[in-house]
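Q: What residues go here?
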């Protein structure tokens, strides 16, 4: 390892609100490791707004990034990684949304995700939204989503060696030591 490379934990969780800078911060964390960067995108591009956001994310990443897309089953792209790589899974919130919209068993999906991330042969940095800082949503589906997202974040944070909350682009380490 060179002086510019930093050892990444097996699993890192980067939380933050919408447009908090969490993805950008997570990308920089992963790049500082010196490992080959792999971007695992979970968003379904269903409208122009999402298309614009995806394009913005792509434009800030260099050609060094290998991009994979998986909206539900993250097992194949994660199990196919090499030890000299590091994966940025962006994001758990979109992945959960996809499962919720498709009516999948969310407990089984969450369990599979945690197992898959733990079994990945390289470090994984998961980006996820912190949705518990807002008001109580008015409709039942939004309240269910907020509850499920909170439980997913709790499970990921419990399994992670490093948990960072990013607010206004500023990281606050909640668990572990920042490399």
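A:
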């Amino acid at each position: 390892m060179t002086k510019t490379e930093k050892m990444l934990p097996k699993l890192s969780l980067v939380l933050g609100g919408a447009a908090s800078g969490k993805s950008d911060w997570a990308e920089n964390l992963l790049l500082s490791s010196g490992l080959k960067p792999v971007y695992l995108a979970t968003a379904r591009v269903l409208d122009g707004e999402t298309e614009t956001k995806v394009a913005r994310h792509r434009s800030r990443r260099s050609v060094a990034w290998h991009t994979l897309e998986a909206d539900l089953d993250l097992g194949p792209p994660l199990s196919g990684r090499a030890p000299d790589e590091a994966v940025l899974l962006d994001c758990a919130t979109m992945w959960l949304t996809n499962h919720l919209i498709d009516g999948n068993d969310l407990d089984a999906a969450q369990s599979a995700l945690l197992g898959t991330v733990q079994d990945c042969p390289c470090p994984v940095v998961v980006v996820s939204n912190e949705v518990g800082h807002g008001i109580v949503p008015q409709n039942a589906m939004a309240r269910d989503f907020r509850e499920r997202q909170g439980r997913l974040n709790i499970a990921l944070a419990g399994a992670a060696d490093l948990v960072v909350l990013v607010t206004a682009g500023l990281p606050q380490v909640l668990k572990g030591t920042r490399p």
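A: Context that may help when evaluating the design: The domain at 11-175 is CATH 3.40.50.300 (Rossmann fold). The CA atoms of residues 25 and 169 lie 7 Å apart.
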